[in-house]
Design brief:
Layout (H helix, E strand, L loop, with lengths): L13 H5 L1 H11 L10 H12 L4 E5 L5 H8 L3 E6 L4 H11 L6 E5 L13 E6 L9 H14 E12 L10 E4 L2 E4 L2 E4 L3 H7 L4 E10 L4 E9 L4
Parallel strand pairs: 1-2, 1-4, 2-3, 4-5
Antiparallel strand pairs: 5-10, 6-7, 7-8, 9-10
Bound molecules: S-adenosylmethionine.
S-adenosylmethionine binds next to helix 2 and helix 4.
């Protein structure tokens, strides 16, 4: 992963961050299937890793309009899909019904800044595409990683993606503090290797893989980390 020079930082803009929930809802309303209906490349990679390791239940964070939720469910995984944006529960539920996958998917509204709505050691794996790099401060990401450690069973696998400091949008647009920049109303927290390793504390960091997506292209990293067996 390339690492750009760190631009000067400013305090976290809590007011701008608070507006993201509604911004995502409005964006999804205006753009049905914003990211398309095909599963993303990291969903394909995660499903392969889950199959290879006999992981059967998956907690998806920031599921959006469900392009990856449906794919994971079609692979036979029991998916719990969470997202903060109003409307996403209805969107994913409707798609799940249409696909005949209701028995495989549970969907709920949830803000990742709050404790995860699952009990300890209750799920095999977690998957999230571009949730960690949303408008979440480093402290909130630390708490989310701790929550994942709590709800995943020993040996549980986390696969997440995030946009990185190699991305063309890093250090540009409106700074929102703590490595976050806003472009077109979307606030993104850009990850570097140090942040990835920091959030992997208490996990075994298995793999960090660069990839691109979309037309910019967005430059991202796919991170795999495992809860130790004991
Ligand atoms: C870049 S989109 C990715 C959506 C989906 N994973 C995909 O790849 O199609 C990020 C998603 O994270 C959700 N999100 C942003 N901040 C969140 C938060 N604090 N808690 C839960 N979801 C959040 C947004 O509503 C949006 O659906």
């Amino acid at each position: 992963m390339e690492t750009a020079a760190t631009p000067p930082q400013q305090p976290v803009d809590a007011e701008a961050i608070a507006g993201q929930r509604e911004h995502w809802a409005a964006t999804f309303e205006a753009n049905p299937d914003m990211y398309g209906t095909d599963p993303s490349a990291p969903a394909l990679a995660a499903a392969e890793a889950f199959a290879a390791g006999a992981y059967h239940s998956v907690l998806e964070l920031g599921a959006g309009q469900g392009r990856d939720t449906l794919y994971l469910a079609r692979q036979g995984l029991q998916v719990t899909a969470l997202d903060i944006a109003p409307g996403t529960v209805e969107i994913i539920s409707a798609k799940t019904r249409a696909a005949g996958l209701t028995s495989m998917v549970t969907v709920a509204a949830h803000d990742m800044r709050e404790p995860l709505p699952l009990s300890d050691d209750s799920i095999d794996a977690s998957y999230s595409h571009m949730l960690f790099c949303m408008a979440l401060t480093t402290g909130e990401l630390e708490r989310l990683a701790l929550e994942l450690r709590r709800v995943l069973r020993p040996g549980g696998l986390v696969v997440y993606t995030a946009r990185t400091t190699a991305d063309a949008h890093y250090g540009t647009g409106t700074p929102r503090g703590d490595g976050m920049y806003e472009h077109g109303g979307f606030i993104v927290h850009f990850f570097n290797r140090a942040l990835i390793e920091h959030l992997a504390a208490g996990f075994e960091l298995i793999d960090v893989c660069d990839f691109t997506e979309g037309e910019l292209p967005r430059r991202l990293v796919r991170v795999s980390m495992r809860v130790p067996q004991s």
